[in-house]
Amino acid sequence: MLIVDRIFFYFAMDFWKDVLGAPQKIVAPMVDASELAWRILSRKYGAELCYTPMLHSAIFCKDAKYRKEALASCEKDRPLIVQFCGNDPKVLLEAALLAQDHCSAIDINLGCPQAIAKRGHYGAFLQDEWPLLQEIVSTLSKNLKVPVTCKIRRFETIEKTVKYAKMLEASGCKMLTVHGRMREQKGPLTGLADWSYVRAVREAVSIPVISNGNIHCMQDVERCLEETGAVGVMSAEGNLHNPAVFMYQNPPAWEPALEYLNLAEKYPCPLSYVRGHLFKLFHHVLSISENNDIRIRLGAANTMEQFHQIVNELKAIYEPYHSGLMKWDQSMEIDSQNLIMPPWLCQPYIRDTPENYVKKVEERRIENEEKMGSENKRQYEDADGNPISRKKMKKLRRMSRRPEKPTHMTPNERPLCEKCVNPLGSKCEYKLCKKCCKDKCYVDNLNCEGHRILVKKRREMAKFYASQVNKNEIENGVS
């Protein structure tokens, strides 16, 4: 090893050991899920390092409200890594400079495989643009006072994955998280992460490597560390379904749920986050058909009081079984999964294999065709009488209803909001996206028919009804 490489190695390892505290149990950056309240809960249950949710660098720079909510933290929330997505080195640097005083490191998201990342051209959809990534990582590394880290997904081959990792290391990356799945492995086609890619990267680079993927229980943590040689493991879904995954524990779901609700009241977050966490904690219980009504009510709940009520209701139903006062009927689990542990305990949700999913989809398609009969299948034609698909027919109908709307428009060609980087509403009279329009209407007391935001109208109605109430009170007092 060259002297320069050896110095770089010791600096990177010192960062992982001295700054981060040599963490092995790490909670992943999760959009709408790894907010402050959940991070505090996860740390109580054994997490040694947490990431913020993925933050959009351009919005972070321009929107002070977004920035304040994203950087919400406290003394207990350390060490913390702030993660950004984006494709502009200057914008990413501007965002990182605003965040560097609030965290231990800045992470660049190069692993998000979702459709929104494809539209925004960030995450895993940058992994083929190596010159751009070299510029991004080196720009941040040279201009920040905190280290820069990266989170990536693997390529089809180990050789290309290793070359990719070494390129990021040479650009200034001080720690690398390797997800053992490819960009295409998501949703029902997720499948298993391949840890051999993580091990190959770990052996090829001099910086600390974290393994991501397949971490659902503590045994997975130990096995992953042994098989990959990584310095730590990162859990996402495993942590969401069981925040005690790092402690060899499977608590009844109502225990972390009630703790989380108390934390969410102390450290407020959008109610959609709270609802999402409760759905995952009670996933197996809510899959039982007898609890269908509770599942529907949880989906409609929009106050902390309602969330508390639902959690306490589930606790009242299953605590007698948990304490042994009542005997659990195993046949009730059929609607959930073939579980080894009772469904009220926090435990992982294991997806079906991609092969089984594809097989079931094909079987369902054949069954529907047999049921309908191919001869009875409706045929669609265009204006010239040529046969077309149902999807094409629907598109032609939409175009006929709005002939003035452009038929082809790439994301870069769409008109943007005057205040941020989001697309503006096509009918907004203020030329803003819905969020900015809502803020403007609230501050300036306006209505926007295009977005159906009626702040002024509702305030006038409230004043009118208030005056009617006062009028009735005065008349009743006089009489």
Automatic annotation (TrEMBL):
Residues 368-381 have a biased composition (Basic and acidic residues). Keywords: Flavoprotein, FMN, NAD, NADP, Oxidoreductase, tRNA processing. Its cofactor is FMN. Its EC number is 1.3.1.88. It holds the Pfam family Dus. Residues 368-410 are annotated as: Disordered. Residues 389-400 have a biased composition (Basic residues). InterPro entries: Aldolase_TIM (IPR013785), DUS-like_FMN-bd (IPR035587), tRNA_hU_synthase_CS (IPR018517). GO terms for molecular function: flavin adenine dinucleotide binding; tRNA dihydrouridine synthase activity. Residues 27-266 form the DUS-like FMN-binding domain. It catalyses: 5,6-dihydrouridine(17) in tRNA + NADP(+) = uridine(17) in tRNA + NADPH + H(+); 5,6-dihydrouridine(16) in tRNA + NADP(+) = uridine(16) in tRNA + NADPH + H(+); 5,6-dihydrouridine(16) in tRNA + NAD(+) = uridine(16) in tRNA + NADH + H(+); 5,6-dihydrouridine(17) in tRNA + NAD(+) = uridine(17) in tRNA + NADH + H(+). Belongs to the Dus family. Dus1 subfamily. This is tRNA-dihydrouridine(16/17) synthase [NAD(P)(+)].
